[in-house]
Amino acid sequence: MGNIQVRNLTIGEGRPKICVPIVEPTADAICRAAREAKSHPCDMVEWRADFYEDCRSPEKVTEVLKNLREALADTPLLYTFRTRPEGGNIAVEFDEYLALNHAAIESGCIDLVDVEILRGDDTAFLVVEDAHNHNVFVVGSNHDFQGTPKKEAIIMRLCRMQEMEADIAKMAVMPKSPRDVLTLLDATLAMKELHNETPVVTMAMGRLGLISRLAGETFGSAITFGTVGEASAPGQIPSENLQQVLEILAQNE
Question: Residue 12 contacts by C-beta under 8 Å, 6 or more apart in sequence?
């Protein structure tokens, strides 16, 4: 319970796994970024497809995914189309969101797909079912750029992701004070202690929330995002720095 095996990577045990986001606008730059990521500390890669200039073309997205799969070899690949209400670049309607995610899932090139749970049950259930039918893991997600919900609300959203059969439950918040960061960490620990059905991933964004990206092993967050080039969210730091801190924390256990 509480962990999943994605290729050769076990998510949910030991140190948080370092995920490097790719946010380039062109197909060539995306593949270069993937090759560069593999030469840095990187356990898995997230392709933020909403940064891609042709992200609304399923055919071109599929072509990029095939090139990414070749470049990454056995490194796990997470496909994320982040929509504007949750901090992404593009607003899309129900049918297009389903179609774009389906193209990625059906490509056979991805290992995990991000699903925005708060888009509504109909949307989420359809993408989750589609992913599982193609042996793709689901990262249920919610991003609150306006603030930090109460501890009980964070736990409720993460549990809702588990109820909808997400394989990983992820939530990001925007802290306005150090106490907001404590709220997130407290909710994360509660998930680890009381709702350990799946790996949980949490982070407080921005400079104020940096500690949440470093202390995952203590509080129960299974993945942390580190940069090789451009960041995909406020507060991410270079993957080399992230690895150094994680190693220091591990050495002093």
Answer: 2, 3, 4, 168, 198, 199, 222
Q: Catalogue the active-site residues.
A: 143, 170
Beta strands 4-6 and 112-116, pairing class: unpaired
Task: Tell me how far apart the alpha carbons of residues 120 and 249 are, in angstroms, rounded to a whole number.
Answer: 39
Q: Taking each helix axis as running N to C, give the angle between helix 94-106 and helix 121-133, from 0 to 180 degrees, rounded to the nearest 10.
A: 10
Measured CA angle at 123 (ends 231, 132), to 5 deg: 80
HSE, CB side, 13 Å, CA atoms: give it for residue 234.
15
Yes or no: say if 238 and 226 are a contact pair by the CB < 8 Å rule.
Answer: yes
pTM above 0.90, yes or no: yes
Give residue-wise pLDDT tens across range 35-57.
Answer: 999 999 999 999 999 999 999 99
The end-to-end CA distance of the chain, in Å, is 23
In single-letter form, the type of residue at position 41 comes to P
- Beta-carbon contacts of 15 under 8 Å, excluding residues fewer than 6 positions away, are 216, 217, 246, 250
